[in-house]
């Protein structure tokens, strides 16, 4: 089932999400709905707060980005094959490397894209959909997508990384999104 995506301005996007246990109600169905929602809205990642659940869960499919790069572009991200996986109760162990810009967007902030600087690598401790523990380092575009989705779990948005002048320039567009004055190809929830 495709879930509606929470729009900028909704308080759930600013909450710090909580860890869950294996007995979280209907977890496998919720994960399936997350994948369907992400693909249905042409996303490469989706965090639970974006579908109105303040829990530490996100899904990422960076394979679709890597697979669509030209060969010379792939050389810019050595060792990044992309991932398609579920991250539950993720916590950053380490983030390192030179910060580099990438033009990011967000399903909760439609039609706004801006360059954001993030480190090259992220090391995460998390459990998968079967609650098997993992600790793994991710690089390149995959790290970028994970950083972006992880931020949602801590109540942060990509626009928080923008310089104050850029934020002021986007103020009108952001207010329009929060008031529902936007059209998208997917269903959204607006805070009243």
Can you walk through the features of this model?
The protein is 27% helix and 29% strand. It has a single domain (5-189), classed as Peptide Deformylase (Alpha-Beta Complex). The chain is built from five helices and nine strands; from the N terminus they run E-H-E-E-H-H-E-E-E-E-E-H-H-E. The protein starts with a strand and ends with a strand. The longest helix is centred in the last third of the chain and has 15 residues, at 164-178. The strands form three sheets. A five-stranded antiparallel sheet has the order 2-3-4-7-8, with helices on both faces. Strands 1-9 form a two-stranded parallel ribbon. A two-stranded antiparallel ribbon has the order 5-6. By secondary structure, the protein is of the alpha+beta class.
């Amino acid at each position: 089932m495709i879930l509606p995506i929470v729009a900028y301005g909704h308080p759930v996007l600013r909450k710090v999400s909580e860890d869950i246990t294996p007995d979280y109600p209907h977890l496998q169905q919720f994960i399936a709905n997350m994948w369907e929602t992400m693909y249905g809205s042409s996303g490469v990642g989706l965090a639970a707060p974006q579908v109105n659940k303040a829990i530490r869960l996100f899904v990422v499919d960076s394979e679709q980005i890597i697979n669509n790069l030209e060969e010379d572009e792939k050389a810019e991200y050595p060792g990044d094959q992309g991932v398609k996986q579920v991250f539950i109760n993720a916590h950053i162990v380490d983030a390192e490397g030179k910060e580099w810009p990438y033009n990011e967007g967000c399903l909760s902030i439609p039609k706004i894209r801006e360059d954001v600087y993030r480190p090259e690598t992220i090391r995460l401790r998390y459990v998968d959909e079967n609650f098997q523990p993992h600790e793994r380092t991710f690089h390149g575009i995959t790290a970028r997508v994970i950083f972006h989705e992880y931020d949602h779990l801590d109540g942060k948005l990509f626009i928080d990384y923008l310089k104050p002048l850029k934020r002021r320039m986007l103020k009108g567009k952001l207010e329009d999104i929060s008031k529902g004055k936007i059209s998208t190809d997917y269903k959204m929830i607006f805070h009243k």
